[in-house]
Amino acid sequence: MKGVLSKIYAWSLLVITVAWLCVTVAFSASDTDNLIEAVVGVAVSLIVTPIIHELGHAAFACANKMKIVYCKCFCFRFYVKNGKKRFGFANPLAADETQVLPVGEENMQKRAYRYAVGGLVYGGVWLFLLLAATVALICVHASSAYSVYALLPYAAYLFLLNVVPTEYSSGRTDALVVRGIQKGFAVEQTMLNLMRIHGGLAKGKSFAEMDEEYYFSAPQLPMDEPLYVAILDVRYSYYLEKENYESAFDCLKRIKAAIEYLTDDEVLSLERNLAYLCLVGGNDEVLKEAVKNREDFWASDDVAVKRTLALYMKECGEEERSALLIEQAKKLLEGGTPQGLKKHEEILRGSFRSMGRQLGIFSHLGRLTA
Fold this sequence. Notes:
The chain is an alpha+beta fold and 370 residues long. It has 18 helices and six strands. The protein has helices spanning 3-28, 32-63, 108-139, 146-149, 152-162, 174-183, 186-202, 213-216, 226-241, 245-257, 264-281, 284-290, 295-299, 303-315, 319-332, 339-350, 356-359, 362-369; strands spanning 66-73, 76-81, 84-89, 99-102, 167-168, 171-172. Helix 10 (245-257) packs antiparallel against helix 11 (264-281). The radius of gyration is 25 Å and the shape is elongated.
């Protein structure tokens, strides 16, 4: 199901669900207690149903050797930043998804399939239980159980919305992801390769120590696809470890070409990577221009920024300041940071300025910052 058909399906489901809810509330309106029960039931369903769906993904992920790095429960969220677990508030209306990082590269297709289907399984079980409870209450003529009746419409809506393999403006449904994994669609091939790369990092491999096919075997994605930037980003890290700065620059150039589709975090990551590549290439003037009037860039508690500043201080002869910044970068990597990323940082610190000038990449970098 694509394009117009998916929109018609989604809008039809929404209209039916709203009508269903209105009828439920209308039937309860003759009695104040019943009306309160119905309204409470609707509110509970709007909060609990998405949580159950995401918990399905989280549970299946944990059962298949994956770590949760982002999970939202209504207005609260759990996430991992710089290797540290954090809790905070979230926008309950945002279409956020549970995000995971696998441990190890093996059997990734099966593990990804189970993770993707987890939300459908939990959502289906939740819907079945509500249907069973509704039928049981109707059979015993429990006309006052409106809090249970009101739970059903939204649970049915969310399950039926995701069980169809299609893509909405908010993203791909779980069913489409499952089919993509089975059929080998380009997006899911890229997703599997990214999961293998992150799984390898969790096991202590650096980017260059992993199978080259992970970086190049999947078909090319369009620029507006979120994984377009993700695969280019890991290729960039791969090329840096290989000291292939020309190809690393090409990755940044292609990311910058898609800048209209980037998130704020992705734009900031591009700037950090550009600054580092300028420094490795020896183009200090371009480096200064790239981060001109960006105090927030230099002040941020980020490993890439600390590494770039440390290497810059080293080139300026400020060995003590450089060593201090390196220690700060190492401290940021403590905790839950994958061993492979720690090894990656060690490789980059060891290969500073080893090939940049020989490659003659300065004019390219100048064009990139223009």
